[in-house]
């Protein structure tokens, strides 16, 4: 967002254009190893994207207030020089890395993020399959405001980070030039992130850069064919159920738990966690 202009909203016509081009390329130059598009799956992804825009009108107010308030109490002020933008761009992706990692390691956060991983296809429409309950990410960008970056710079950088991630949701692009693969997040790296293969789980969290994954040992190169989706896939295309199914599962587990420690574990431990001796 730059002075009230949401870059991701402005990009909607380009999303549609590039999805159409990808769909045409899949239609006229098919690859049997690719999942391609499926009508119901794509409709669900687009519905989740539209719902996310609507819901974020509310969550966005909370985030704006939190970021602006944090910046107001910060003793530092950083101007909008070219160097400041570059530093913020890298720093934002560093914060995004830890947010994304937490989304996979803390179940209540995963309940929101799982939406993005729920498709068993991988194409540009998958990039638009976004959560309707994303306020949990706010805390991870507050250090940037505390460091002195103004809110409009932070939100603009967040939009640019998200825009970058759109194009990496494709099977149409193979591995890229090695120096790019070394530093940047690419379709190959992000396909791994969307894989439910055992060796691909909880890997490649980066948004724009892959260097943080390399530094913090969460990197995995693409090798075996990727199996997209969840370890336990959901059998629905209903957008509402896609949006809330993991919250419902958490509620069931918490109700069934016999101790407060186990109840907390089902909320705060990783997805798939269960008390010792419990049936998985």
Automatic annotation (TrEMBL):
The keyword Oxidoreductase applies. It is a multi-pass membrane protein. It is found in: Endomembrane system. Its main location: membrane. The chain crosses the membrane at residues 7-29, 49-70, 82-99, 140-168. Residues 85-217 form the Fatty acid hydroxylase domain. InterPro entries: Fatty_acid_hydroxylase, Sterol_desaturase/TMEM195. It comes from the Bacteria. Keywords: Lipid metabolism, Membrane, Oxidoreductase, Transmembrane, Transmembrane helix. This is Sterol desaturase family protein. It comes from Catenulispora subtropica. The lineage of its organism: Bacteria, Bacillati, Actinomycetota, Actinomycetes, Catenulisporales.
């Amino acid at each position: 967002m730059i002075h009230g202009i949401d870059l991701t909203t402005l990009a909607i016509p380009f999303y549609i254009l590039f999805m159409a081009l990808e769909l045409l390329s899949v239609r006229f130059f098919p690859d049997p190893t690719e999942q391609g598009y499926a009508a119901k799956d794509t409709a669900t992804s687009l519905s989740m994207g539209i719902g996310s825009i609507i819901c974020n009108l509310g969550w966005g107010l909370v985030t704006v207030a939190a970021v602006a308030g944090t910046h107001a109490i910060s003793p530092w002020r950083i101007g909008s020089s070219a160097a400041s933008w570059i530093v913020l761009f890298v720093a934002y992706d560093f914060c995004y890395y830890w947010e994304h990692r937490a989304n996979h390691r803390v179940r209540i956060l995963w309940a929101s993020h799982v939406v993005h991983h729920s498709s068993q296809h991988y194409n540009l429409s998958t990039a638009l399959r976004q959560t309707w309950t994303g306020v949990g990410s706010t805390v991870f960008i507050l250090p940037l405001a505390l460091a002195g970056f103004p809110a409009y710079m932070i939100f603009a950088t967040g939009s640019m980070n998200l825009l970058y991630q759109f194009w990496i949701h494709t099977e149409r692009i193979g591995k890229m030039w090695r120096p790019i693969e070394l530093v940047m997040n690419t379709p190959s790296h992000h396909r791994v992130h969307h894989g439910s293969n055992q060796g691909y789980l909880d890997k490649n969290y980066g948004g724009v850069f892959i260097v943080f994954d390399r530094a913090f040992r969460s990197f995995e190169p693409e090798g075996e064919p990727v199996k997209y989706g969840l370890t336990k896939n959901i059998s629905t295309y209903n957008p509402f159920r896609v949006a809330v199914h993991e919250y419902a599962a958490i509620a069931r587990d918490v109700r069934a738990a016999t101790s407060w420690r186990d109840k907390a574990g089902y909320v705060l431990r990783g997805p798939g966690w269960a008390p010792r001796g419990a049936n998985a």
